[in-house]
Amino acid sequence: MTTAAEIKYPDFIDGELLSRLAGKGREDPGRVRAAIGRALEKEPLTVEETAGLLAADSEDLLEEIFAAARQLKRDVYGNRIVIFAPLYIGNLCVNDCVYCAFRRTQEATLRRTLSEAELRRQVEALEDAGHKRLILVFGEHPDYPPEFIARTVRATYSVKKGRGAIRRVNINAAPLDHDGYRMVKEAGIGTYQIFQESYHRPTYQAVHPAGTRKADYLYRLHGLTRAWEAGCDDVGIGALFGLCDWKFEVLGLVSHGRFLAERFGCGPHTISFPRLRPAQGFNPEPGRLVSDRDFKKLVAVLRLAVPYTGMILTAREPAAIRRAVMEFGVSQIDAGTRIELAGYTRKGPQELKREQFEIGDTRSLDEIVGELLQTGYIPSFCTACYRLGRTGVQFMEYAVPGFIRNFCTPNALLTLAEYLEDYASEETRRAGWRVLEREAAGLADPRFAGRLDRIRSGKERDLYL
Ligand code: SAM
Ligand code: SF4
Predict the structure, then answer these.
(1) Which ligand places an atom closest to the C-alpha of 209?
(2) How far apart are CA 201 and CA 118, in angstroms?
(3) Which of 21, 73, 382, 396 has the greatest count of CB atoms below 10 A from its CB?
(4) Residue 12 gets which letter from DSSP?
(5) Which among 230, 264, 272 is positioned nearest to 395, based on CA atoms?
(6) What's the CA gap between 394 and 398, in Å, rounded?
(7) pLDDT tens readout for residues 108-147
(8) Which of 93, 111, 282 has most ligand 2 atoms within 8 Å of CB, for mutation?
(9) Mutational pocket test of ligand 1: of 93, 140, 288, 356, the residue with most ligand atoms within 8 Å of the beta carbon
(10) Ligand nearest to the CA of 174
(11) At what angle do helices 292-305 and 29-40 cross, to 10 degrees?
């Protein structure tokens, strides 16, 4: 008999259907082009349509998919890339996820939780580099209840160094209950991110040993359903690619997005698609890893399938891959990333025993901003929508008719101007102002120029539309 909990929190992943769709080998150009057409109308795609795109394999059809993804990204997001940094708060963990160096049975990992003073120093270092947006990352442990997460969020917002301030704090932590979400929401969080890791249930059970909290697949699958019910309308989903067939995971992500959209009238704010990295005591199985060619396709297909969902590409990927896939639809990247505990004040190379996994892109924020500018992107530190309440369904109302560019481009430029004035190297500063002046010339909103002048003259900060 179906229980009330199963009715309220059903398993919306149809494993059999997704396996069948993911396994469909033959490409069908008619189906691919029909799906591209719908995606360019900015219609979210069904799992069947997404599977049709995933089956494309000839170079010509792949090129059509890439071109459409590029166009959709430009139409919906313009050429800006939002920048953030992860800040690891504590790596104590009661779980035993086989792929993660923080798993409880990994004895070589140095365990640590930032004290308030250490947190302050990390945030100051991030502000000194020019960051405005952070994601705080936690292991799952009784020492990290929602009260602790909320306190850490408040402490992070309270740190102000020079002209620096953190204006948006996102969270990546274990799924909470309703009261827990209410508590962290109260502290002013942005996105609450939970990765399902694998939507393929047998794989999920195999990598999250029975008897651990994380072994409860459905509790995690509905982690963000509860978040939404508790008032957190800004949520991020993700899958860890390399645990099982990557096409299955793409279809799992699309199913998850559609479930949230159907239930709450609005899909997830972001999707993450990390590829497995080596970690202390763990080396990914080569046969399961997503090749660079498939990764490019995965990013482009996701872009087409969920037109209004931000896509996050992290520093797990090396710089060359980040460069190559960014144009297909990525809207957020981290930069200047250190993922070992207290890493932002440590000099020297990252050390595996101190971090969750090995990262691929170790460049500084200034280097990445410089490269983005050179390659035609506008680096953005913008936090305006969230602070003006443009999230959840509200955000969709702005996003859908294409308004996003009218807000996002000018706001991106205003935050870029702040970065250039306050933190950039001389070379980045010069390159940045050239881009800024060119981009500003095309803006219609009469309020923009005045705000830009006020920033440039050094009088004010934190101005937005
Ligand atoms: N402990 C919480 C949890 O598991 O949801 C919070 C975050 S965990 C520190 C952040 C994410 O890192 C995980 O959800 C997982 O997808 C990813 N991760 C873990 N090990 C990884 C690895 N070896 N390579 C790449 N990503 C990894
Ligand atoms: Fe703990 Fe998260 Fe690592 Fe799993 S992925 S061991 S829950 S920190």
Answers:
(1) 2
(2) 39
(3) 382
(4) -
(5) 264
(6) 7
(7) 889 999 999 999 999 999 999 999 999 999 999 999 999 9
(8) 93
(9) 356
(10) 1
(11) 50
pLDDT 10s digits, 271-317: 999 999 988 889 888 888 999 999 999 999 999 999 989 999 999 99
* Residue 375 in tokens: 């390659």
The pLDDT of residue 65 is 98
Cβ atoms 398, 101 nearer than 8 A:
no
Architecture of domain 73-363: Alpha-Beta Barrel (3.20)
How far apart, in whole angstroms, are the C-alpha atoms of residue 281 and residue 297?
30
- The model carries a pTM of 0.96
Residues 420-464: pLDDT tens digits?
999 999 999 999 999 999 999 888 788 999 999 999 999 899 898
Domains in the chain: boundaries: 73-363, 402-456
Closest C-alpha among 107, 105, 86, 102 to residue 143: 102
For ligand 1, residues with CB inside 6 Å are 99-100, 137-140, 172-174, 194-195, 197, 240, 274, 276-277, 279, 282, 316, 356-357
- Ligand 2 geometric centre to CA of 97 (Å): 6
Q: Which pLDDT belongs to residue 288? A: 85
| Cα Rg of the chain (Å, integer) | 21
| Residue whose pair of structure tokens reads 């069947």 in the numeric block | 48
